[in-house]
# Entry
Amino acid sequence: MENVATRYFYAGKMGAGKSTHSLQLAKELKAVHISEDEWLAALYPDQISNFEEYLKLASRIKPLLSKHIQQILTAGTDVVLDFPANTRQQREWFKQLFDHAQAKHQLIYIDADNEVCLEQIKHRRIEQPARAKFDTEAMFQHVTQYFEAPQPQEGFLIKTIRKESH
# Structure
């Protein structure tokens, strides 16, 4: 029987709404939801105070989770990955996952204006005070300089959701 599981993953600037959308999608599809932020918080509590520490620690969990994600997909269960696919380099990990698991995929690109992202980050700091130290306008500006919107030639099935300020 052909594997029908699909892996969903996200690209979008910091604060675009990737985590919120991923939770909603996982609930709607009755899929397994795996959040990078949750794993990082559990494995490395209070150890991420800057972007470089995030990159270092995030790179450690991907090999740990790769086999686990592939097993879930191979079992025929959809997986919604709340991990950033915000650069070509980050998207290579996702490409390896679906190549190994031979699962279907969908890259959901939340294309949000900077104003929308900054407003959502402001609300997130209030709703999640533990993130206030990291979720700042300065961090948004720093991270956004590396953002690379996904392109069709990368070989992903891309669904774009556009968010504009009103």
User: Anything to note?
Assistant: Helices lie at 18-29, 36-43, 51-74, 88-101, 114-127, 137-144. The mean pLDDT is 90.
